[in-house]
């Protein structure tokens, strides 16, 4: 398996030498500055690739291997195959990447908001901080800040009472922080930052779109792009919903083993793959991660390895240290390594330590939420240790 690192570019505060020092060899990046829906050009991709892969004398070379992500425009999620202009632009971006020999593309299909957290610096017992999704705080935003039409039907009476009390006790800054965390698009997000009125308008635009219809729109997108994907030798990897359940009454269709099976049955091309994110899938207690990895092993081209801890109410969770929480990382890696040993090096599974606690010196500086250098370094080192141990056992 090839060790990768998500890099947000030269302004993100983590240098390419930092990546080398962490021991990663492959870069996961994207042209985040290009507006969603606008086609990437070969020249833009070539410039970023040159920045990553031009190796100073005496330094370890790095390879831009994975794009995360080419965002799927909102029109595609709402209209499916009818969003021809947006799909054509997406294909053009993919062609620009393939022309520069970058052939693994991660994407998601979450409507309006993608990955969602209520707290970016939840203090853990060690004094490090982690990202957290708190169900009751989310209800505060949904019921009292966004004031979504019909939201009260998605919460119990007890939920509504807790949310009301919590909202009444919040100050203006707390409300602003919560609004920013949920509505303003977290790092790497494939959706646009939204004001509250724009948020309501987006939700209204999805009125009448249920899970079956959203799934059909994804299938139509895949049917449109897959012939080009196959011609270019590209692998698509669909990231799971995060969290893997409905938010704001919207459907989510990449949350379970059954969800992925339905998509693979509908579009059976081997290029139609998955990004196996253990943290996202692990939020659901009914997701058997080693079983999912085993069933879809041939379709896993990219993996996010992280752990989450489900909290007492079963609806809240926080990011755990990579070898803690509710993910059996040893069992997961055993399955991924078994698949990886069947492949040639060029098709080896790429993985990255995803997210990470904010700790040590990162507590004293501005860092990209979810992507501090030191926490991810710790995670990658721990994952590397498991891989070495499992490889040694396999050779014994």
From TrEMBL:
Protein name: Mannonate dehydratase
A GO biological process held by the record: D-glucuronate catabolic process
GO molecular function, one term: ferrous iron binding
Pathway(s) of this molecule: Carbohydrate metabolism; pentose and glucuronate interconversion
PANTHER family: MANNONATE DEHYDRATASE (PTHR30387:SF2)
Cofactor: Fe(2+); Mn(2+)
Gene: uxuA
Function: Catalyzes the dehydration of D-mannonate.
Entry similarity comment: Belongs to the mannonate dehydratase family.
Native source species: Phyllobacterium zundukense
HAMAP family: UxuA
Domain of life assignment: Bacteria
Reaction(s) catalysed by this chain's protein: D-mannonate = 2-dehydro-3-deoxy-D-gluconate + H2O
InterPro entries in UniProt: Man_deHydtase, Xyl_isomerase-like_sf
Keywords tagged on the record: Iron, Lyase, Manganese
Keyword Hydrolase: no
Enzyme Commission no: 4.2.1.8
Keyword check for ATP-binding: no
């Amino acid at each position: 398996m090839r060790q990768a690192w998500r890099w947000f570019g030269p302004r993100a505060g983590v240098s390419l030498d930092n990546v080398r020092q962490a021991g990663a060899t492959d870069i996961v990046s994207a042209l985040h500055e290009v507006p969603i829906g606008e086609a990437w050009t070969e020249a833009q991709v070539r410039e970023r690739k040159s920045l990553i892969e031009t190796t100073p004398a005496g330094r370890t070379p790095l390879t831009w291997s994975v794009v995360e992500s080419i965002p799927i425009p909102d029109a595609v999620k709402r209209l499916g195959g009818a969003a021809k202009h947006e799909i054509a632009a997406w294909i053009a971006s993919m062609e620009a990447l393939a022309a520069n020999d970058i052939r693994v593309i991660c994407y998601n299909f979450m409507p309006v908001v993608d990955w969602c957290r209520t707290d970016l610096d939840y203090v853990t017992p060690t004094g490090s901080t982690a990202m957290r999704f708190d169900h009751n705080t989310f209800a505060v935003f949904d019921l009292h800040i966004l004031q979504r039409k019909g939201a009260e039907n998605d919460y119990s009476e007890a939920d509504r009472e807790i949310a009301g009390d919590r909202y009444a006790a919040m100050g203006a800054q707390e409300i602003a922080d919560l609004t920013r965390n949920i509505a303003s698009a977290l790092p790497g997000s494939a959706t646009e930052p939204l004001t509250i009125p724009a948020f309501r308008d987006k939700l209204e635009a999805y009125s009448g779109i249920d899970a079956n219809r959203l799934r059909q729109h994804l299938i139509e997108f895949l049917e449109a792009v897959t012939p080009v994907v196959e011609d270019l030798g590209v692998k698509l990897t669909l990231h799971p919903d995060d969290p893997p359940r409905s938010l704001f009454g919207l459907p989510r269709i990449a949350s379970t083993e059954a969800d992925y099976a339905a998509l693979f049955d509908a579009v059976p091309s081997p290029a139609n793959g998955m990004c196996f994110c253990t943290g996202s899938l692990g939020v659901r207690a009914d997701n058997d991660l080693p079983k999912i990895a085993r069933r879809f092993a041939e379709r896993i081209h990219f993996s996010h390895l992280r752990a989450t801890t489900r909290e007492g109410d079963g609806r809240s969770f926080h990011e755990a240290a990579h070898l803690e929480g509710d993910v059996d990382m040893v069992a997961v890696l055993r399955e991924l390594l078994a698949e990886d040993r069947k492949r040639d090096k060029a098709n080896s599974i790429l993985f990255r330590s995803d997210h990470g606690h904010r700790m040590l010196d990162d507590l004293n500086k501005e860092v990209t939420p979810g992507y501090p250098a030191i926490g991810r370094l710790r995670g990658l080192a721990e994952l590397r240790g498991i891989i070495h141990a499992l490889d040694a056992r396999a050779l014994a």
